[in-house]
Specification:
Layout lengths: L4 E6 L2 E5 L5 H4 L6 H8 L4 E7 L2 E4 L2 E16 L5 E21 L9 E24 L3 H8 L4 H7 L3 E18 L2 E10 L7 E4 L10 E11 L4 E8 L12 E9 L2 E8 L2 E9 L3 E11 L8 E16 L2
Antiparallel strand pairs: 1-4, 1-17, 2-3, 2-17, 3-5, 4-5, 5-6, 6-7, 7-8, 8-9, 8-10, 9-11, 11-12, 12-13, 13-14, 14-15, 15-16, 16-17
Length: 315
């Protein structure tokens, strides 16, 4: 559906735990370790920083990306343990789409069906560490005392890094009629799992597991008002609870304002975006499952995304 040239230079994204929910617990923060542990006990602390400058030229797309995620969870009041999961991914994605059937000559198809196939390749450098540590035990103290720098500390905690190549493929079936269209999409990402050749550290680097995803969307655009109803199921090929894989969404808006609402694998999501052509600000709130089963334990998060210098030229 893309035409001409589009450039997205600056689009940083910040996600974190929704501190508004825990404002009372996290206010008047203490200084003693035991009191700090009591304050944050059970709160799934989370921070994600990301950016992905993108260039699209007709049906060709190229994106560079950096994506950092840090999760900290302190559990068990009797014997506190700290779960640490830190990951930094950097790399690029390049993809091309082919129109297999439909009106190939028109800039924008307005009637009838169209079938498209997309193929992408990516290279990714992944680094990070993951583990469970006894907060008041000797393991963390030994790691710190036996290390002369922060690099040695993270190395002794299991830090590793490496790089790998991955392949994605997807198909889309679209039906156009006037100002409406119906889409069905199927994608297979990280075919055969994306594996990483370790260049530093001793721990195995977590693979990017293959995922099969299905989605559909109904859109109507009346120029001064548009809306989209969407539903998707992902990842289909995992043993997750079926309802954890289901995602529903609604987007409605005017030319400069979009309102979002949804259901994210058992939890409500909502947000809004202000779009002023070269400037777009999106703020959203959503819940995500951090337990092992459906609706076992919710982590409430907030997302802030800024798009600057977004340029589209229709050739």
């Amino acid at each position: 559906r893309h035409h001409g040239v589009s450039v997205y230079l600056l689009n940083p994204t910040v996600e974190s735990v929704n501190y508004l929910k825990y404002e009372e617990r996290l206010s008047n923060f203490p200084k003693e370790p035991a009191e700090i542990a009591d304050k944050v006990l059970g709160i799934p602390l989370y921070l994600r920083l990301a950016a992905q400058p993108t260039l699209k030229f007709h049906h060709l797309g190229m994106t560079a990306f950096i994506n950092s995620k840090t999760s900290l969870t302190l559990e068990n009041a009797i014997h506190p343990t700290l779960d640490i999961d830190y990951r930094l991914d950097r790399g690029f994605v390049m993809g091309y789409s082919f129109i297999l059937a439909g009106n190939k000559g028109a800039k924008r198809q307005t009637s009838g069906p169209r079938t498209s196939l997309g193929v992408g390749i990516k290279n990714m450098n992944r680094q990070g560490l993951s583990g469970e540590f006894d907060l008041f035990g000797t393991e963390l103290l030994e790691v710190i005392s036996d290390s002369s720098s922060y690099k040695e500390i993270r190395q002794n905690m299991g830090f590793s890094k490496g790089s790998g190549w991955g392949v994605d493929i997807g198909m889309e079936q679209t039906f156009y009629k006037g100002n409406s269209n119906m889409n069905f999409g199927l994608s297979l990402l990280d075919i055969g799992n994306t594996r990483f050749n370790r260049s530093e550290g001793t721990q195995k680097i977590a693979e990017q597991e293959m995922s099969l995803n299905f989605g559909s969307a109904w859109t109507q655009d009346f120029k001064i008002f548009d809306y989209t109803l969407a539903a998707d199921v992902h990842p289909i090929n995992t043993p997750l609870h079926p309802m954890s894989k289901l995602h529903l969404g609604l987007r409605a808006g005017l030319p400069f304002l979009k309102i979002y609402g949804g259901w994210n694998g058992g939890y409500v999501s909502y947000g809004a975006a202000i779009d002023l052509y070269l400037f777009r600000l999106t703020v959203g709130f959503y819940g995500v499952e951090v337990g092992r089963t459906f609706k076992e334990k919710e982590a409430e998060r907030i997302l802030v995304q800024l798009n600057l210098l977004k340029v589209n030229v229709d050739l």
